[in-house]
């Protein structure tokens, strides 16, 4: 993942910046985006609202993209600062009332020590294929959060691409199947492919993440499968468009969100930990 300009200052790979400069991430998660993205948004919001301390409080949204989550957090009464390496994302997030946005890298946060009640990392870890970089980013979150404060990080599960391609019937395309199988046969690293559908990434096993939290000095409190198995079901598009059924889907996901045997079925996983007092 790392291209360095010197020994201490990391740089984000150009392929990742170019991928997100297309501006697709905002629509992917909001209403009207892809169904799996909308489920990811609603479930992430559902889990975070149960984990976060009551507002007001200071939240650092690291790799917060266009501010999709920062927006509702600010509306809930939190003081939100967003850091992202993509200029377009910083520009989009800066337009949101109550959100301060600036450029920055998760591995070298432009943040004071112990300045925040919560540090969220809902994107950076899965774009850091090197374990040392992921631990470095989590250590920065540990530094920036106050003693007793919460750190929540998202990862993409190891088999998410396999499940997604099967769901969309793209696994039957030989080049997609070959590339997906190669990721599964390796360590979960997803390389850059010019004609691919994603960029440089790391797809993690659920049990990898707690050890990285621990190595960064954080104490893990829980893990939460975001989409459960609902994202793989054929009727999810219609369910999400119906408010009553959508609430039932969210409730169903809660039943299995921390079941160890099912954590890997979700596309995304949230891991929560704390900096000890």
Q: How big a fraction of the residues is strand?
A: 15-25%
Total strand segments: 11
The largest sheet is: 9 strands, mixed
Radius of gyration: 18 Å
Q: Give the SSE order as H and E letters.
A: EEHHHEHEHEEHEHHEEHEHHE
Mean pLDDT: 90
Distance between the termini: 33 Å
The total of helices stands at: 11
Shape: globular
Low-confidence spans: 1-6
Helix content: 25-40%
**Subunit organisation of the chains:** single chain
What class, by secondary structure content? alpha/beta
Description of the structure:
Helix content is 39%, strand content 21%. The chain contains 11 helices and 11 strands. Strands 3, 4, 5, 6, 7, 8, 9, 10 and 11 form a 9-stranded mixed beta sheet that branches. A two-stranded antiparallel ribbon has the order 1-2. The longest helix is centred in the first third of the chain and has 17 residues, at 35-51.
Task: Please provide a brief summary of the model.
The chain is α/β, with parallel strands linked by helices. The protein has helices at residues 14-20, 25-29, 35-51, 68-75, 87-94, 131-144, 160-167, 174-185, 208-215, 236-241, 243-256; strands at 3-4, 10-11, 58-62, 79-84, 99-103, 116-121, 145-157, 189-190, 201-204, 219-225, 268-274.
Topology:
Blueprint: E1 3-4, E2 10-11, H1 14-20, H2 25-29, H3 35-51, E3 58-62, H4 68-75, E4 79-84, H5 87-94, E5 99-103, E6 116-121, H6 131-144, E7 145-157, H7 160-167, H8 174-185, E8 189-190, E9 201-204, H9 208-215, E10 219-225, H10 236-241, H11 243-256, E11 268-274
Parallel strand pairs: 3-4, 3-6, 4-5, 6-7, 7-9
Antiparallel strand pairs: 1-2, 7-11, 8-9, 10-11
